[in-house]
User: What shape does this take?
Amino acid sequence: MAPSSRLPLVMGNWKMHRGGPDGADLARAVLAALGGRAPAGVEVVLLPPPTAIAPVADAIRGTGVRLGGQSCHAAEKGAFTGETAAPFLAALGCGFVLCGHSERRRLSGEDDAAVAARVRAALAAGLRPVLCVGETLEERDAGATEAVISRQVAAGTAGLDAAAAARLEVAYEPVWAIGTGRTATPAQASEGHGTAREALSRGLGAAAASAVRVLYGGSVNPGNAEALLSAPGVDGALVGGASLEAAGFAAIVKAAAAVRAVPATGG
Assistant: This one.
């Protein structure tokens, strides 16, 4: 297979864990497991809770490992108790932010319009938004997977120009495989990524869409990472629970660095 020009990206989403000084401890443990810095051939991003961003930023400074937020609000400031504005994340050293993670869609009621507004807020703040898309088990069983992914991608990218598209990432996370221990097969992951890529191409044009990295998220672990990362069209991984264990997360990162045979055509 011809190698893709898209640099693999592995993101560790800590969710609501490691929000105090133990966040910096985990970041240092990840670095130790990686040999002190991010390996060549892969981009590594940690997504700690907001309360741990500053100490984690200190722990990873100068190592090549990058920092991101788990969510952002659509407004730059205002009376939005408990929310985090995209400029706040940028000021703390974040370069990325998740937009529309399935848990935010499900638990916080973020619909396609709200997610799209967050994507634009992230771009305005100089962050790289990671647009999360994916179907529930009920939607998959109803044969609606393609329609759901296409709708979410179209809504999240509507109106973006080429410059904005160049700063976009997409994560395909089949909701039925998140935190359940049930993982999409490499073929299912590849199919979902292909659908997302086709939707990107329709909305942004083939040239812009071809540069967007599409990650797989859904119970990624050291045991299945190599197979998933080797699937056509998979440009990296959004890792949840496995990112809380330093050695396991480092193994996933190393697998991504080793697998540089992601097809550029159709994925």
The CA atoms of residues 104 and 110 lie 6 Å apart.
